[in-house]
Every structure is written in C-alpha cells, then in structure tokens.
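Posting for a labmate who doesn't have an account.
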Amino acid sequence: MIKRSFFALSKPTLTYDLLNPDLADPEAIPIPGTLTLLLPEAIDSTKKALFAKGDSLKKGEKLKLYEDSTVYVLSPVAGTINALDSYSDDFGNTATYILVKPDPARTAPEDTAKITPKENIDFARDYLDHLPGALPFARLAAAGKSISTIVITGADADIISSTWQYTCTAYAREVEAGAQILKRMIRVPRICITIPEALTTQVNFGTLQVLKVSDIYPSALPAMIMKDHMDMVLPPGKTPEDMGVCFIRPEALVSLARVFKTQEPVFEKVITLVDKTGTQRRIKATMGTPLSKIFNRMSVHINEMDRIIIGGPMRGFATFTHHHPVTPEMDMVIVQDKEAIAELSDTPCVNCGKCIRICPVQIPVNLLVRYLEADQYEEAADQLDLESCIECGLCAYVCTARIPLYQYIRLGKHELLALRAEA
C-alpha cells in the first residue's frame, strides 16, 4: 500500500501489505512439457561436460557441468535433457540453461534419486543447495565466517508481497522443524523470526525468538533489522554474514524439514502473482516452470511491451522474456500493462533533494548518480558511500527527473566488484 502526504515537502510513506487471514491453498500449476533449469556457470568448450542432450535423468538427480564445478542444479522431474546452451543474466553474466522434458510415465521408486540426509553443513552444501527458498549453504559454509544468528524472514522485504508471511503462517511447524535441523547443522546459538507487528494472525513458533517489524517500508530489509533489533550497523561493503548474521526465507526451512522427512528433494515453489489489475493470487509451481505456462493457466495475457517483474515493485528486476523459469529464490512476479509503466527519462538530475531526504542511510544520491553515470565506480564508493546503500529503491521512487537510480546503484556495485576482482 502506498500513501502520499498532501503536503509536497513531506516524505511519502510506503507500508507493507499484510497477509489476508484467508489462508487458502495456492493454486497448483501442472508440470509443463519442458522445464528450464538455470545453472550459474558458463559453458567451457575446452572441457568435457558431464551431461549432454539426450541423457536420461532421475528426479532429484544432481547436474553439474564439469568434474571440478562447484555449482549445480537438481532435476525436478524424471525425464530427458532436450537441450543446453548459454544465456545472459540481468548483469550480462554468461551462464547455462538446461531444458528438461519430463516423462510422466517414470514414477517408479528407482526413477527418484534417494538421499540419506545428514545434519552437517558439507552434506547440505553438496546436495541441498537448490531447494525452494534458496538455502544459502554456500555462504553458511564459507571459510572465515562464523554465524551466530539466523534470522528467518517472516516479514516480506518488499511491499505488496505476502509470500513469506503466508509460508511462516501456513507451515509454522515445518518452519520451526527446519530451523532446528539447521541449528544442529551449523551449531548456531540464536535463531529469530521476523513478523509484521500489525499481523493479526496468531502463530506459535515454539522456541524461535520473534522480532516484530514495523509496517513502514523498508523496516524489513536486513540492514534495517540489524540496526533496529540487534543494535548492529552494517559497515559499507560488508554482508550480514560478515557480521555473523544470516537471513533465510521461511520456505527454505520448510523445504529442509520436508527433505529430512521424505529423504528426497522437494521442488514445489510458492509464488505471489500480481496481474495487470493488481489482483494478487498465490500459486504453487515446480521449479523450472516457464512463467508463460503460469500466465496461460491464470489467464494473464502478455502483450508486446508489457513488463514482467521478478520480485517486488521496489527491489525487483524486469525480465526480457516470459519464458523465464521459476527459480528457488523467486517469491513474487508482477505483470504491468505497457500503458501503466512509468516512463524513465534521460533528464539530468534537477537537484530537488528528494532522494537525499528519503534515503534511510542518508547517502547524497544526487551526487552519487553523477559518478555512476560517468562510470566512476571506485570514486563513487570512496567519496559518496556507494557501498552503504541498502538498495531499498526509495530514491528512484521519489525522483522528480525519473532517473532509474536504483538500477544505477545495483549496476555500480556490480561493476565495482568486477573491477576489484580484476585488480
């Protein structure tokens, strides 16, 4: 919900949407004829791949490109590899997509890759890194990082969405069970769960410490939670893990609990879909399902120049294709009619100061954007606090000149990391 004050000089207030008390089950999307799996590793023509077009797959089979690969995906179905090729993500990084054709006839036990779950971080990193909710085992197992606090994000980070609220409310017992499994895995002393302070639904989270988050955006972002509830200020360029804190989606813990119960991977992902009319619907789809199949099922027609946003309206990113698949970290999809899209502008900054007044960390955004437009990323970090940005998107929301400030900042951080990696 968005509320604008009548007085032009005051800040606009954005509030988080609360979960509807009607916890209806998500509408299930049938498994389509082809699933698309995204593997964040580029094809290397000098190496021999471990799989190829035509290979048969078990449900839950682990797919990694090369013997020395550290990243992988799990096949959500028993079937056959139809194709694999390169693709570019939203920052231009080259990776690999794998098309899998499901075989509905293969339902025998031997067509599913069984696992024997172990409560240790190495097993989880090697076999459970691709579950719905995207458990960050690679980050939890990173050398030199000691995690002392796990924060389960029951309060959605972006406005409009209620996916995380729904998950921790509808599956509270599995959230707690998954949390206890994770606690034993990494021996973390403290586990918390955030919920909106105005949420009326009463849920028992057992031994989990509850942190009640304000309904004013961006109170549910990690940096704000650390500041408001842990008395910790995230230093520029640092991650919460650097400070001993790890934020985890509730759906990731539900997935973890189900793996230990069934002894096989799970692949159904809960998503909030917002159509062109603003109507919200909760759906459940197998990971790898193209968004086009969801739109067809839900009677959402996509015209040329309509916008598809993965994530919320403040922090999400637009995808260039309606064939983009459901991924472990996808919680929300918004479809905007081309007529409703606010036009961006190449007008220079007019120095109105709105971005500075609304910034939660008081970055001089009007000056920062000038450095970013000039590709001066290191100067932007050293002189104008680029790395202090918590990426809430409020500056872009209020910008008089309609400059895509949030996108400039995300790109600037990405380029800064690339420059440092080269050095």
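Reply:
Got it, the structure tokens are right above this. The radius of gyration is 22 Å.
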